[in-house]
Each structure stands twice: as C-alpha cells, then as structure tokens.
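Deliverable D5.2: sample structural annotation.
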Amino acid sequence: MTLGETQALFHELVTGEADPDDERLERVFRGSGELATYERIGIYRGMYRARLVDALRETFPNLVRFLRDDHFTDLGEAYLRRHPSEHHDIGRFGRRLAAFLLRHPDPARPDLADLAALEWARNEVFFAAESAAAAPETLAALPPESAGAARLEMAPSLRVLSLAHDALALWRRLEGGEPPFPPIPGPSAAAVWRRGFEVFHCSLPLHEAAGLKAALRGASLAEVCSHFANRPDPSAEAHGALAGWFAEHWVARVRAPGC
C-alpha cells in the first residue's frame, strides 16, 4: 500500500466509512500486547465521534440544555451517521442539524428544529464578515422618480428565519434557566444579526420578514415595499420598517439604479 492509500484507509476506519473488520486492516496496522488492531483503531474512532458531538454542543447550547447531555449525545451520533463531516472546518458540522430535526421530529417537541435553526443562525452571523453601515440619508438622497428601482445591499451578518413555532420564546426560557413550556405553534419570523462581537435576534412581523428577504435577494426597493401593500397604512409601515433596518445597521449600501 502507498502512503496515500494508507492514509485514506485510516480516514475511512476512523470516520466509519470502513468497518473495523476490513480485511485490509491487519495488512497495514498492528495491534499491541494489550490491544488488538481494531481496538487501537477504535480509540481514534471514538475520539473522532466524541469531538464532533462536542462541536455540536458548542454550537447549540440551548438545545443541549433542553435535551440534557445523554439525549443530546444520542441526537449527535444519529446526526453524524446520517451526515458525516464534509468540511475541514469543524464549526460547519452542524449546518444540517435543523433540517435533520425537521425530517425526524420528536412528536412531543416539533419546535426543536426551529430552536436549532435559530442557534445555527446565531452561530453563522457571529463569524460573518464585517461590513459598513449605510446612512438613511443615502436613500433619501435618491431622486424620487428612480428610488423604486434602487436596491439595498444588506449586511453579510444578517439572517432572516421563517419558523413554524415560537423558538425565540423557548430560547429565552432556556437561556434564563427556566423550564420550557409546551411548543407554541404558528408561523413566525426572526432576524438574527451581529454588531461588533455581540449577536442579537428579534421577532419580525411576517410581512416585514418577506420584505427583508426580498431585499436580501437583491430585489428593487419597489418590490421590497410591495410586501407592505396589504397593511392598513402601507407607506407608513414600509417607511418605519426601512428606518428600523438602517438604525440596526442591517443595510450596508444603497445601490442606485444602474449601479
């Protein structure tokens, strides 16, 4: 076996892609007086799984608080079997956990997928790139006849979540050490963002979340504001929402038509 083939086999054995009784094992690796070959490999295999589950614990602290350590370990290992690590950055390992919980929900706690989505978004924005904050005057300075075609370039550290349960209320109780309450169903939305080294999140009205998602997709200002069309006072509510986005530094740049 070449060095590259040996390294590939060791990786397969440690990550679980190859069985410990693989016929190649004894040809390449050796046991010791105290441990058989597969037992020595098993040490690395166990350490690999444990480190990945520990990485999940660091990313989803309130999910850990809810499930307690043993149950979270079971969840982490089930997730690892379905979604082996694919990235050199161990911090990326949990990116599919919310979707995994959505596909395999606990019938009594379907809101855990939303809690995981919130915690993953908080993790993502913490590591997102810094950006400048646009002043609201840049929008006001656009000619009225072309303002509708302008586009808002949003901060890289902003995320907008569509949730099936009130995960923010559950997060607050777990963060405060309070016992969780039963799931609160119903569509909701949240914004998650960072300022400096601090991560924030807040609930959003569904129409504002839709407008904010349109802005994140690069939609024109007219299309963004169209999501307020069914509100009692569309102009005032759209103006208020936009003012809030600038105040929270969610808008990095205003792109004039043609730019």
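Annotation notes: The first helix runs from residue 3 to 15. The mean pLDDT is 89.
The annotation will be released with the project's public dataset once the embargo ends.
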